[in-house]
Amino acid sequence: MPITDEELIAAAAQALNPRQLADGSWVADVGAALEAVDGQIFTGASIGGYLAVCAEQSAFTQLVSTTSPRIRRVVAVWRDPADGVLHVLPPCGRCREFMRVLDQANLDAQVILGPDHTRSLAELLPLPGWHAEAVERSRG
Q1: Alpha-carbon span 40 to 69, nearest angstrom
Q2: What integer pLDDT is reported at residue 126 of this predicted model?
């Protein structure tokens, strides 16, 4: 039986383990969960600093080592340390492109943007794929 969006958000929250490194960057302050097309759930946490690894990418490393890189849903979360409120975060542009490149079928995956708010990855990626317009005419 498939899990709900709320349960996937809770799985992402379980990946949170925030702590600050000596250089001031954060580790595990963003958590992600994704559902593979076969129903398996994978989670990951962010690694900050100048060599950043996003939480979504961390979850994808588990996914691709276990099954296909195709996903059904994905969500990332962050808990505000000031008030403890959990927030759903949209994937950054790099993660959106990362998901598309791993499998074009991921354009149909649902990205959870809030408790009652989802969009397909394609809707969050304008002009997915190669787009090039000629600036000059053919010189032939």
Answers
A1: 12
A2: 78
* pTM exceeds cut of 0.85: yes
Q: Which domains does the chain have, with CATH numbers?
A: 5-124 (3.40.140.10)
Q: What DSSP assignment string belongs to the chain? A: -PPPHHHHHHHHHHT---EE-TTS-EEEEEEEEEEETTS-EEEEEEE-STT-B-HHHHHHHHHHHHS-S-EEEEEEEEE-TTT--EEEEPPPHHHHHHHHHH-GGGGGSEEEEETTEEEEHHHHSSS-S-----SS----
Q: How far apart are CA 24 and CA 1, in angstroms?
A: 42
Look at residue 128 in the predicted model and tell me its pLDDT: 66
The pairing of beta strand 26-36 with beta strand 71-79: antiparallel
- What are 38's two structure tokens? 């076969």
Q: Residue 93 class from Cβ within 10 Å (0-12 exposed, 13-18 middle, 19+ buried)?
A: exposed
